[in-house]
Amino acid sequence: MYNYAIRFERDDSAPGLAVFCRDLPELNSYGDDEAHALAEAVDAIETTLSTYVDQRRAIPQATAPEAGEHVVHLPAVTVAKIALWNEMVAQGMRKADLCRLLDLSQTQGDRLVDFLHNTKMEALENALAKLGKRLVVHLEAA
Description:
By secondary structure, the chain is α+β, with helices and mostly antiparallel strands. It has two domains: 4-72, 2-Layer Sandwich (Double Stranded RNA Binding Domain), CATH 3.30.160; 76-130. 43% of the residues lie in helices and 12% in strands.
């Protein structure tokens, strides 16, 4: 659902690889080589997701990868934050509304949808439950 496909592009005038994502056109990142670019991709995706929150936009689901693309599997906590944010957008909620609903300070509420902050999964499950949603995790082969 949120395993985004990225592609690499090499520029002959500069060393390394540029990283792009069809589903998140605002994303741009860089790596010295393919391994470095893949390692940087999660941070680049989470930074891009933060711009969607700042702009109060829903975060798009990932589309199937195309030939030559690499799939980035996001951490479970990031996927839970995407689900929470998208549900807030669907219900017309602001961060302040979520804080009131959960009886949290503004700082605590902001962190629930801050992709660059580590949040406990229990806090996200609680927030989703207050919005009438349940987080379901499933296991698949790596």
